[in-house]
C-alpha cells in the first residue's frame, strides 16, 4: 500500500433520482371530487419543494457532488493501477470482468477521520469478512480526503459491511456504501443535469425530468437519501395520491373530520402526503427486487445486477429511519407508529421471501402468507396513527383500529384478486398466487373463499359495534369505492369474483412476452 493513499473524510455520495410505478388503483377513485386535481397537484408540488433545499443551495450541492464524483474516479483509477486491473488492450474484456468482480466484493466508506490509517480501517471491518485491501484517497498534496475503499475476499462480506453504516471509528460515524463503480453512472447523470436551464433543473430536483434513465435515477436517489434526509420524488407523490385520497375519504370520518371541507384536508396534507409518498417509493423499490429473484435475472429474462445490488442494500438497511427521524423531530413519532414501520419492513422481507420461493419452487407456509396479507396495509395504519398525533388526540380509539384492520384485510384480498394477472406477470405478492402453490389450483379458490367468509363475519360483528352514524357513513363510503372501482353488483359492497387460476406462471409470462414482441 503506498503511503499517500489515505482515506477520505467528507461524507457520503448524494444523488437525486426517481422510481417509476403505478398508483394503487383500487383503494379509491382516481377522480378527486373533494378538491380539483389542479389544487392537489399545486399542493403536492409545494410539499415537494419545501422538502428540499433552496435552488441555489442545491446547485452548490451539485457542485460538491461533481468534486466527489471526480474523487471517486480518481480513487477507482488508483485501485485499478494498484491491482493491475488496467493491462494491455488485448486483455481488456478480461480486465473489465475482473474489475466488476472485484467491485462486487467492495464497499465505499465516507466520513473517515483524517488520522485513520488503512490498518485501522481494516481492523474495523475485519469482523465482516477477510479484508483484502484498504485504499485511502489523498489529494495531490498527499492529504487524506476522508474516503476509503475496502475490498473483501468474499462477496457476502459486503452486506455485513453495509450493516456497519453509522458505526464509529475515531469518534466519527462511518458512512458505508456500495463501491463507486456501481454509482458512477448516476454521477455522470448529475454532471449532465447541472448544464440544464434553471427551470429544468428545478424539475429535476423532484425527479420528473429524468424519465429516460430509470436505473440511473434510482441509484442516484438511493445514495442521496442519507440518514438525516428523507427525500421523495414528485412522481412518487403523484402516484401515492390515490391512496391518500382513499385514506382521507375512508378514515377522516373516524376522527370527526369533514372530508368535504378542503381545510380539513390541507391542514394535515403535508405530513400525510410526504409519509405515504416515502413509503410508496420503498414499496416500489421492493417490488423491483421481486422481478429479479435469481442473481439479478429478471422474471422476463433480462439481468440488472447493479439495480438489484443497490436496491437490496438500501431496502435491507433500515430504509424508513430517515422518515422516522423527521417525524420524531416534529414530535409525531410514537412507539406504536415506530412499530408499524417495523411491520412494514417485515412485510417487505416476507414479500421477498415468499415471491422468491414461488419463483424457485420452494416451500411456502400458509402462516407466512396470512401474516404478510395482514401486514400489507401498514401504511394506512401509520397514516391513521399520525392523524391522531396531528390532531393532538390523547388516545387511540382501539375499536376503530380493530375494525379498520379487518376492513383493510378484506380490501387487500379484493385488490389481490383484481390484480392477479398483473401480479403473476411482475412476481408481486398475491394471496391467490400463494394459495395456489400451497393448496393446488383446484383447492385454492375454496380455501381463499373460506378466509374471506371468516373475515366478513368479523367485519359485520365489529361494524355493529360502531356508532350508528359512523357505521352508516363508512358503509356509504364502501359503496362509493365499489362503484368507482367498476364493480357493479346488487350488493352495495360488491361480490367476490375469483379469477381463473394460472397453473404455469412461467409459461404465462413467456407467452405474454412473445405476444408483445
From TrEMBL:
<dbReference type="Pfam" id="PF00076">
    <property type="entry name" value="RRM_1"/>
</dbReference>
<dbReference type="InterPro" id="IPR000504">
    <property type="entry name" value="RRM_dom"/>
</dbReference>
<protein>
    <submittedName>
        <fullName>Polyadenylate-binding protein 2</fullName>
    </submittedName>
</protein>
<feature type="region of interest" description="Disordered">
    <location>
        <begin position="1"/>
        <end position="29"/>
    </location>
</feature>
<feature type="compositionally biased region" description="Polar residues">
    <location>
        <begin position="88"/>
        <end position="97"/>
    </location>
</feature>
<feature type="domain" description="RRM">
    <location>
        <begin position="105"/>
        <end position="181"/>
    </location>
</feature>
<feature type="coiled-coil region">
    <location>
        <begin position="48"/>
        <end position="82"/>
    </location>
</feature>
<feature type="region of interest" description="Disordered">
    <location>
        <begin position="82"/>
        <end position="103"/>
    </location>
</feature>
<dbReference type="GO" id="GO:0003723">
    <property type="term" value="F:RNA binding"/>
</dbReference>
<dbReference type="InterPro" id="IPR012677">
    <property type="entry name" value="Nucleotide-bd_a/b_plait_sf"/>
</dbReference>
<keyword id="KW-0175">Coiled coil</keyword>
<dbReference type="InterPro" id="IPR035979">
    <property type="entry name" value="RBD_domain_sf"/>
</dbReference>
<keyword id="KW-0694">RNA-binding</keyword>
Amino acid at each position: 500500500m503506498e503511503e499517500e493513499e489515505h482515506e477520505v473524510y467528507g461524507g457520503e455520495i448524494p444523488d437525486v433520482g426517481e422510481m417509476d410505478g403505478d398508483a394503487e388503483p383500487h383503494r379509491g377513485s382516481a377522480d378527486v371530487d373533494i378538491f380539483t386535481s389542479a389544487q392537489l397537484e399545486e399542493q403536492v408540488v409545494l410539499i415537494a419543494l419545501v422538502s428540499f433545499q433552496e435552488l441555489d443551495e442545491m446547485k452548490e450541492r451539485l457542485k460538491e457532488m461533481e468534486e466527489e464524483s471526480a474523487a471517486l474516479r480518481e480513487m477507482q483509477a488508483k485501485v485499478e493501477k494498484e491491482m493491475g486491473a488496467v493491462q494491455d488492450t488485448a486483455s481488456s474484456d478480461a480486465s473489465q470482468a475482473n474489475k466488476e468482480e472485484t467491485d462486487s466484493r467492495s464497499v465505499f466508506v465516507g466520513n473517515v477521520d483524517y488520522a485513520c490509517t488503512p490498518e485501522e480501517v481494516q481492523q474495523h471491518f475485519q469482523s465482516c469478512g477477510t479484508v483484502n485491501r484498504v485504499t485511502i484517497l489523498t489529494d495531490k498534496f498527499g492529504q487524506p480526503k476522508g474516503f476509503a475503499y475496502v475490498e473483501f475476499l468474499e462477496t457476502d462480506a459486503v452486506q455485513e459491511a453495509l450493516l456497519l453504516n453509522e458505526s464509529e471509528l475515531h469518534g466519527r460515524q462511518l458512512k458505508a456504501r456500495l463501491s463507486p463503480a456501481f454509482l458512477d453512472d448516476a454521477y455522470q447523470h448529475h454532471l449532465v443535469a447541472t448544464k440544464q436551464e434553471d427551470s429544468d433543473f428545478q424539475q429535476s430536483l423532484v425527479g420528473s425530468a429524468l424519465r429516460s434513465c430509470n436505473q440511473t435515477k434510482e441509484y442516484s436517489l438511493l445514495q442521496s437519501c442519507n440518514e438525516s434526509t428523507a427525500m421523495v420524488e414528485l412522481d412518487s407523490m403523484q402516484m401515492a395520491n390515490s391512496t391518500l385520497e382513499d385514506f382521507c375519504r375512508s378514515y377522516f370520518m373516524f376522527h370527526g373530520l369533514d372530508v368535504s371541507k378542503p381545510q380539513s384536508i390541507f391542514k394535515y396534507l403535508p405530513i400525510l402526503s410526504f409519509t405515504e409518498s416515502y413509503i410508496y417509493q420503498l414499496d416500489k423499490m421492493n417490488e423491483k427486487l421481486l422481478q429479479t429473484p435469481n442473481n439479478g435475472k429478471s422474471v422476463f429474462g433480462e439481468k440488472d445486477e447493479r439495480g438489484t445490488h443497490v436496491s437490496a442494500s438500501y431496502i435491507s438497511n433500515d430504509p424508513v429511519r430517515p422518515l422516522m427521524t423527521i417525524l420524531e423531530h416534529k414530535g409525531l413519532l410514537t412507539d406504536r407508529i415506530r412499530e408499524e414501520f417495523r411491520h412494514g419492513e417485515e412485510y417487505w422481507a416476507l414479500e421477498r421471501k415468499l415471491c422468491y420461493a414461488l419463483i424457485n419452487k420452494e416451500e411456502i407456509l400458509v402462516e407466512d402468507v396470512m401474516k404478510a396479507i395482514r401486514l400489507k396495509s401498514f401504511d394506512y395504519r401509520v397514516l391513521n396513527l399520525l392523524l391522531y398525533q396531528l390532531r393532538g388526540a390523547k388516545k387511540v380509539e382501539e375499536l376503530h383500529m380493530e375494525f379498520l384492520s379487518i376492513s383493510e384485510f378484506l380490501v387487500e384480498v379484493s385488490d389481490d384478486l383484481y390484480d392477479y394477472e398483473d401480479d403473476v406477470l411482475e412476481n408481486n405478492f398475491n394471496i391467490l398466487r400463494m394459495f395456489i402453490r400451497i393448496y393446488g389450483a383446484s383447492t385454492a379458490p375454496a380455501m381463499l373463499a373460506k378466509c374471506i367468509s371468516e373475515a366478513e363475519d368479523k367485519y359485520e360483528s365489529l361494524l355493529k359495534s360502531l356508532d350508528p352514524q359512523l357505521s352508516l357513513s363508512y358503509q356509504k363510503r364502501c359503496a362509493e369505492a365499489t362503484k368507482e372501482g367498476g364493480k357493479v353488483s346488487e350488493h352495495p359492497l360488491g361480490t367476490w369474483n375469483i379469477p381463473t387460476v394460472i397453473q404455469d406462471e412461467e409459461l404465462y409470462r413467456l407467452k405474454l412476452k412473445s405476444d408483445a414482441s
